[in-house]
Design brief:
The complex is a heterodimer.
Chain A lengths: L2 H40 L2 H35 L1 H35 L6 H30 L4 E4 L2 E4 L2 H5 L2 H31 L4 H36 L1 H8 L5 E2 L3 E8 L4 E9 L2 H7 L5 E2 L13 H30 L7 H9 L2 H18 L2 E3 L3 E2 L10 H32 L9
Antiparallel strand pairs in A: 1-2, 3-6, 4-5, 7-8
Helix pairs in contact in A: 1-2, 1-4, 1-6, 1-12, 1-13, 2-3, 2-13, 3-4, 4-6, 6-7, 6-11, 6-12, 7-8, 7-10, 8-10, 8-12, 10-12
Chain B lengths: L2 H33 L3 H11 L3 H18 L1 H10 L1 H21 L5 H31 L3 E2 L2 E2 L9 H25 L2 H32 L4 H5 L5 H12 L8 H23 L2 E5 L2 E7 L7 H28 L17
Antiparallel strand pairs in B: 1-2, 3-4
The chains are: A mainly alpha, B mainly alpha.
Chain lengths: 441, 341
Amino acid sequence: MDALLLSRLQFAVTAGFHFLFVPLTIGLALLIAVMETLAYIKKDELYLDMAKFWGKLFLINFAVGVVTGITLEFQFGMNWAAYSVFVGDVFGAPLAIEATTSFFLESTFIGVWMFGWKRVSRGMHLLSIWLVAIGTNLSALWIILANGWMQNPVGYAVRNGRAEMTDFAALTLNPYGWTMFFHTVLAAWTVAAFFVMGVSAWHLLRNNRPDFFGRSFRLGAFMALASSLGVLGAGDFNGMMTAKLQPAKFAAMEGVWETGKGVPYNLLVLPDPANERNRVETLGIPKLLSFMAFKDADAEIKGLKDFHPDDRPPFWPVFLGFKLMVGLGMFFIAFSAAASWLSLRGAVQRYPLFLKAALAAIPLPYLANQLGWIVTEVGRQPWIVYGLMRTSEGLSPNVGAGQVAFSLVSLGFVYAALGALGIFLTVKYAAAGPAAPAGRA
Amino acid sequence: MDLNTFWFLVWGLLWAVYLALDGFDFGACMAHNFIARTPDERRVVINTIGPVWDGNEVWLVTAGGVTFAAFPPVYASLFSGLYTAMFLLLLSLIFRGVSFEFRGKVEGEGWRRFWDLSIAAGGFLPALLLGVFFGNLFRGFPLEGGTIMSGFFDLLNPYALLTAVFFMIVFLHHGLLWLALRAGGPLAERSAAAASRAWPLVALLFLSFIAASRYATPLFSNYEARPLLYLLPLAAAAGLARSRAGFAASQRGAFLGSFVFIIALVFTGLAGMFPDLVPAIGERGAGLTAYNSASGAYTLKVMTAVVAVFVPAVIAYQLWVYKVFSPKLTTENLKDLGHYY
């Protein structure tokens, strides 16, 4: 394998692994802040116990998320030096701003929240978790604005042999970045909400602290419903943005080979990329795809055949990843609607099968998050900056395949061990449940 | 002062503050296996840095991000040129970070021992690697069109190795002073005593480092042109003198002396590098400089607005956090915190 493939693999592994732990913390920080706020306003200690219990699970995942994030900050320079030189003037800014405005905030106040139970006032403690929640979500915004620039470069001019920033407002208001941000962050909240529902379901099945876990389940169900509906809405915008700005990615997502107007949406598609056609496409709803993509039933959609083979993304990961993600998204809406309805009626414990399903559903939003990033990033290929620079042009000139192989293999082992330990500890402490209410100091 | 010089200073300040802050975390990590005598004392050591290490580490991330935004070719050249060293640094920081969180989560001697070793490695390794990093930065690299041509083992030259040992001992001393300040009881007394014993070694290594820099690097050529710069190593020496435990009026004074020492030490090197950020070996101004490697004026102005607002804010709230956790931590009051590692 050459340095290009190894470097791409390493980026995929490190970014994908980082985002196995981060979505939970983005959503859970918010949920814990809500719990602690309810405890503060309602003077209800049960909410405070909830904040502590879910906070413990949060911290285990936060630790893994933080340490795997540092790699990403330096990896552009380590493996993608040519890319870094070309884009740093414009792409470096959102990364530096993320660290200065957001990462500092969450990393400093998580210390206050963790260790400050007896050192700061209750109001200050509450403020700390809100600052953590705001920091994590703002972090996501700046990182995604950076990624949004790679998808849809704006606010720059190519001068002096590099992309130079000319319009900071255009960079921060990049519509592609913002739709990605809402889609990603709401998807992260969905991960946290399903996690809370699933863990609560496990305890409810054992009738362990039904007061505590019934309430947690309800909060999780409402959050899951709201955020999975939001993901769909933001995803619709994201799809339109992709159709307009990254037509090759869009064509691969939907399996469109021939350019046409008023394109139908086929419920069943079996692609045959070797022959640049679909073997089966049936159950078409007339003009729906054109309408979904451009909100115009007669709009033209460019097929993959109209792109030079060198300008097309790898087909299968983008196509399958997208279809599976959308299917999962629909399932999340249906499931969380049922969960909200059942827990509103106080009936959720009467349906053990449903609780078991909630437990089994925990990994699904994680999977959907990963698939979303695969569609986004593999779909961006062969470009490292869409339409501007090819991935193959971005490599470090002085880093050999041997060095990357060494770092990739060692990272692989370390990350696998970290992942296993992170999951082991999360499961251990999730199963242990909250401290007994009498044990409260 | 022009924008490029200003950004050279911001760049240097971020690295200097990072080393002065995470430096005592490294020192506490190095010390915890031998300075603590009981399991509870170990917990005290870890919990003195518990609330702050994560915020300290962000200074590294910010230094990296700002290098990327303000000096893209420097970011690209340094981190690809020091690929393997950088990778090892990241790996050791990864282990250190999860060690704190994981260590207390499972009962069992083997589990604890493993994470204790990982914490110690998370102190020694980053200190040594950052020493190698800065030693080579002060010395300069064989450059070809801005690309660093040295392999991993070329980085381990005698000057860089001396800097590595120097950094390790400086951070160990810094961490011991931190423990003398933030821990209580016999642990604090032992830390203060160990810091006193380490001080002459720090001083000796400081002198050797200055002498070696004169001999093996062009660092002092800038000083001959602008003798006012000699105030920097003098400030370092003053901080070092004040950091001698027992010599300063208070433990706080000794720790702050060590803090000033590290900041002034980093700037002693940086002042000798200017205008280079990635110097070519043996020659000033021939590498990637604040002028030939900076982002455009527009980007630098945007970033100036960002750091002018947010860096003072970060310093203010981090100072507040240091104040909140200033009461001494002992084996007796540890469990009153409500949460501890």
